[in-house]
Amino acid sequence: MNPIKVAVVGAGTMGSVHAEVYKNMPDVQLVGIVDIHQDAAQSLAFRKRTVHYTSLDALIREKRPDVVDVCVPTYLHRQVVETAARAGCHVICEKPIARTLADARAMIETCRAAGVQLYIAHVVRFFPEYRRAYELLQSGAIGRVGTVRAMRGGAFPKAWQDWYANVARCGTVIVDSMIHDFDFLRWCFGEVERVYAKSLLGRDLLQLDHAFVSLRFQNGVIAHVEGTWAYPNGFRTELEIAGSEGMIDFRSDQAAALHSQFQESDFVRAGVEVPASPLVKNPYQLELEHFLACIRDGEQPLVTAEDGLKALEISLAALTSVETGEPVVLHPADAFGTDQL
């Protein structure tokens, strides 16, 4: 079997992470790194023993990749994805899928028309702790879920042209970071009915951001999601899910990452704690291996492009709620119909 030829666009943090994973895959050939900054592209390409380009068109002409992995800033996703798709390349794109629903829908339609696959890298679904929480929910282990609390936080990210501080380009911590939790919770509980949010949007961020978002799902579950870019350093996440028969509690800064407690029942005896052990392969490798298997073998993806679109819809509804001070009601067809922001 011939190796899958992959090109990575973007030599920043995520591009480096993805390139490292591909370099360690025996059935993948990393054919090049693309970045408009030659020094960045050359440095990463040298470390991964491949070649560098400052133009995706040039790489496609010379290397004919099977897959283009897009790790550029969010507001640039559409142009890179569409260039790759029109050249006949399958696409793996970092989350968020795009900055606007119009761009996201256009990307999906372009890939569909070109007959190529588009995968959005919502990696939280591949973290073992979150996957275990999902499995416990699907099994009915904690009974009927009532409330959920999720949190993720770290320092304000630093990047090219400080684009994370530009709301039009990044969408604040809500679109760039909290979208992870929106995607995971939608995976667990289905469609969101209403969104209400408060954040620092509208103030001078000064390299700080913080937001609270409440989600009401169509099935009645209510989730409270907190996101912050206000820590001096470090990063952590939390997840707490309370049900009629028990609860799930996950805190990334604890040695035993996932705890499950159940009321006495046929499912399990009272007070049982089930910690989840880290896997040998990191979640990024699991994610990219999965997407490549979908391309090679026709597997059904764990995350679809439409999932990425719906997560963006929730994020943009939260931004609208922040700006108006009012809750935003979502409808099943919203992400494919009227645009927001």
Structure report:
With 341 residues, the chain is α/β, with parallel strands linked by helices. Helices cover 35% and strands 24% of the residues. The protein is built from 11 helices and 14 strands. Strands 13-12-11-7-10-9-8-14 form an 8-stranded mixed β-sheet. A 6-stranded parallel β-sheet has the order 3-2-1-4-5-6, with helices on both faces. Helix 4 packs parallel to helix 5 (101-114), helix 5 (101-114) runs antiparallel to helix 11 (305-324) and helix 9 crosses helix 11 (305-324). The radius of gyration is 20 Å and the shape is globular. The termini are far apart. Residues 264-277 have low confidence and may be disordered.
Which descriptors would you attach to this protein?
341 residues; alpha/beta; 14 strands; 24% strand
List the helices and strands and how they pair.
Blueprint: E1 4-9, H1 13-23, E2 28-34, H2 38-47, E3 52-53, H3 56-63, E4 67-70, H4 77-86, E5 90-94, H5 101-114, E6 118-121, H6 128-139, E7 145-154, H7 167-170, H8 172-176, H9 179-189, E8 192-199, E9 210-217, E10 222-228, E11 235-243, E12 246-251, E13 258-262, H10 283-297, H11 305-324, E14 328-329
Parallel strand pairs: 1-2, 1-4, 2-3, 4-5, 5-6, 7-10
Antiparallel strand pairs: 7-11, 8-9, 8-14, 9-10, 11-12, 12-13
Helix pairs in contact: 4-5, 5-11, 9-11
